[in-house]
UniProtKB/TrEMBL annotation, chain A:
Protein name, per record: Probable membrane transporter protein
Hydrolase among keywords: no
Gene Ontology cellular-component terms listed: plasma membrane
PANTHER family hit by this protein: MEMBRANE TRANSPORTER PROTEIN MJ0441-RELATED, MEMBRANE TRANSPORTER PROTEIN YTNM-RELATED
TrEMBL record, chain B:
Pfam families listed in its UniProt record: Alph_Pro_TM
Coiled coil spans: none
Species for this entry: Oceaniradius stylonematis
Keywords from the UniProt entry: Membrane, Signal, Transmembrane, Transmembrane helix
Cleavable signal peptide: 1-23
Protein name, as recorded: TIGR02186 family protein
Protein's UniProt keywords contain DNA damage: no
Transmembrane stretches, start-end: 257-278
Superkingdom in the source lineage: Bacteria
UniProt cross-references to InterPro entries, sorted A to Z: CHP02186-rel_TM
NCBIfam families, sorted: alph_Pro_TM
Amino acid sequence: MALYLPIAEMSVNILVLLGMGAAVGFLSGMFGVGGGFLITPLLIFYNIPPAVAVATGANQIVASSVSGVLSHLKRGGVDFKLGAVLLAGGLIGSTMGVYVYSLLRGIGQLDLIVSILYVVFLGTVGGLMLFESVRALRRARSGEVVSLRRPGQHTWVHKLPFKMRFKTSRLYVSVIPVLGLGAVIGMLAAIMGVGGGFIMVPAMIYLLKVPTNVVIGTSLFQIIFVAAYTTVVQAVTNQTVDVMLALLLMIGGVAGAQYGARAGQRLRGEQLRAMLAILVLLVALRLAYTLFIVPDELFTLTVGGVL
Amino acid sequence: MGLRRAVILVALAAGLTGTPAAAQEAAPVGDTDAAAAANAAEQARVPERIEIGLSTETVAITSDFTGQALTIFGAIDNVDPLVHRQGRYDIFVILEGPRSELVARRKDRVFGIWMNVESQSFDNTPQSYLIASTRLARDITSLDTLARLSLGVGQIRVQPHPDKKQAREVEQFTSALRRLKRGDGLYQEFPGGVRFISQSLFRAELALPANVPLGQHRARAYLFRNGELVGQTEAPLRIAKAGFEYAVSDFARTQSLYYGLTSVLLALFVGWLGRIVFRKD
């Protein structure tokens, strides 16, 4: 089953894309992440032009995040106020990100920077998460109570000014790190075509000390808006959003996500985190491999001018 | 032994084409005779003309496009039946894509990481180039003629944008350009792709790849007699998205803000619908 994509201007197999969306959706539902960090490299691997993969990835993330937020909303797991502040930062970051993206594309270093960002962020986050979850698994085996949140514990983050109270998260914290975190994630979203859940979730847990039950819902809530904004900005500045491609991925993705969420409920938190960590590390290693190993073809060809 | 067999073969060939050359005679003498006779006849004859016709002026790309065979028909006026029977007419048919600036980049190792370092841009280079011929190009005419008319993937004229690079390095980029284009199926040769269907009619079979560039293409045809160019012609062909594909990409280009907003609304709707349809809790 072939389909000619109107923006990517190439012929693709419908079933491959539906399957890709479903597989990533399953994993994202299971681990509570958007799955953008998997879908964008997969699309590039399937020969979709990187520019289209990144911009379309953002569009697909809107759908998977909406689906996820709706299920978290029912359990009261969304802190709208915290989400709104993160979002304010996110929009600033995203605008900068799209600009940086056009700039990098012009000088021919987009692929390199995207790969390096993936390797650095996935490697760091995956490594930390694996370390933490293995320790938690060991402790759980020896019978200790595992809690990520130790109330009353303060770090440098809590000494910053402009504090704000977030009721749902039972949090009293400066807006600076919240805005900053939102901005960094927004920028990454634009450059890497990811929602940033895989960075946002650990950062909210470990840095801001947001309780785990509201982390995923809130992260997804703000990702909807950042991804929607990125989609529109990419559509206007680079015209690389392929709505047909996004639609195929979304359909596979939302179906897979609901089944994945159910599978995830049968596993314990630290087991899930360890598995997600391994998955993240594998993607990082795969991308690092292409950076360090001699490529088969040293030359690449693009249409259009140099900056 | 080898020599005798060669002579017999020449004799047989001469017999088949009806040249009155004795079997014992050396072949070259008969050949020059025939050529002289042909030259004399040529002066009295009206020169050949080649024409091509495309069944359509536009190739429409719709959602099921995965590449397409393209047949170009053509005719030769004032065919010399003798030359035709001897198979001395040869035809090239080329479909050349829109021209644009292309940039080739080369990766090098920098601090252990492979990244794009050097680049070379090429002005006014065809994005695609499909060529069909009656037989192998080098059997038809001289390399000089092939290069002059840019007949063949190796002969496409590329114009490296002048900069400080050395000639040898520019040559590396030029050959990389041809190699990559060939690999993508955008520069292709179809020797034997042109067939005569009658004395004066011929058809050229080209295969448009799935990634064929959109825009204004140019079909060119060249007629050779005895390795000499005797006629040429060209016709335009537009390759464009049609129907739904056209509507979507036109929307994305001309109304990009509304296109972006529509994409987002669609995503919101699919996300919500997915939750309703596949809800498992």
